[in-house]
Amino acid sequence: MSNKTSILVLAANPKGTPSLRLDREVREIQSGLLRSGRKGFHIRQDWAVRPRDVRRSLLEHRPSIVHFCGHGTGEEGLVLEDDRGGSQLVSTSAVAGLFKLFSTQVRCVILNACLSEFQAKAIANHIEYVIGMSREIGDGAAVEFAIGFYDAIAAGESYESAFRFGCNAIELAGLPGNLIPVLYKNSDSNAGGARFLGESLTSKSLRELRALGWSTTDIKKRLERLDYDCVAGLDVESEGEADQWGLVAESNPDGYSFAVDRAGDIVGYWHFEALPGDLFARSMRGELEDGEITVDKITFLCAPGVIDIYFIIFAVEKRCRGFRVNRLLLDALFDRLEELAESGIYVRRVCANAFTPEGVGLCQSLGMKYLQPHRRAGLIYHADLRDSSLLRRARPQLSEALNKSTTSMHLTR
Known about the structure:
Elements: E1 5-11, H1 22-35, E2 41-46, H2 51-61, E3 65-69, E4 71-72, E5 78-81, E6 87-90, H3 92-100, E7 108-112, H4 117-123, E8 129-133, H5 139-154, H6 159-172, E9 181-186, E10 194-196, E11 201-204, H7 206-211, H8 216-230, H9 236-239, H10 242-251, E12 256-261, E13 266-274, H11 277-284, E14 305-316, H12 323-342, E15 345-354, H13 357-365, E16 369-373, E17 379-384, H14 389-394, H15 396-408
Helix pairs in contact: 1-5, 3-4, 5-6, 8-10
């Protein structure tokens, strides 16, 4: 039995579908494997594949990696060929069911086709690593991803690392689409089986951003630009100024968390500040302007006790919006609340001013209650975390600890 890693390339470009440079994609995959000088790979090709051809090729070659290049249609399935060279749609369930039969053999599946994330997620219930495309992807970007991925595989990198090399290859080529590929991993410990690994974004603290080379001034300038892009009609009175927030960030860095893309750019963030009783009361009445929140008025996150926080903003660049970045930032918030609780600092109440329809939707989704309009712009929402069903579901131990702590500590108004 051969010790080589077998790669099976399946290609389909039926008549009547947009023409793709599949020959170039396959040629570049072969070239990358040959250039590496590693002899542990064996590549097989099957062109103009029909559904039965896919099954037969899998049975014949028993590959470790299966690479499909062609067309996808989203939830409906993948486009293969029929006996006349036309299109034949294969459903997501059928594709996933086929790979289930090869779950002991195939380790990685790459669906280099538009809108193939649906199939990737389904296949990942049975195969260890699966890559799909979350949106339509240009032919050039798809080829560059394949080149970067297999260059890394040939160099001995892991599948997860090769995925990142593939995404970076798109960016290095100056093409759009480096955020489109997504990676799923089969996880037996996960109830759904398939765990999303292809995060185009990661969460970073202010300290971690500084370690990456960002200065506080550069961070604040980037956030200011993001704020004005996300909130129409924003002005200095409601926004505050970069110098003001720079001092706040330097003094109280734990009030921030950032969503950062692969290039290291900030594409989203949240910011809250703990406020003393009088300022928090004004925030709930809709009287507080963000420009009033200066370093001499905030409550520093240092002394054990119970605090109330004013959620100043939750902003995400338009191109990156979706449930993944929202969940990433929400998890970062819960993580921060747990870190504070470990130091004896418990967040009791949260107030927020929703400036946009997205902000209103987010507050409502988090179970916050509408109080009243802000005196000048926005809508005021409030939540008592002691009564938060979301916190009980997401972090039950934190919820329990919060309720215990607030019954034994003096609560200031």
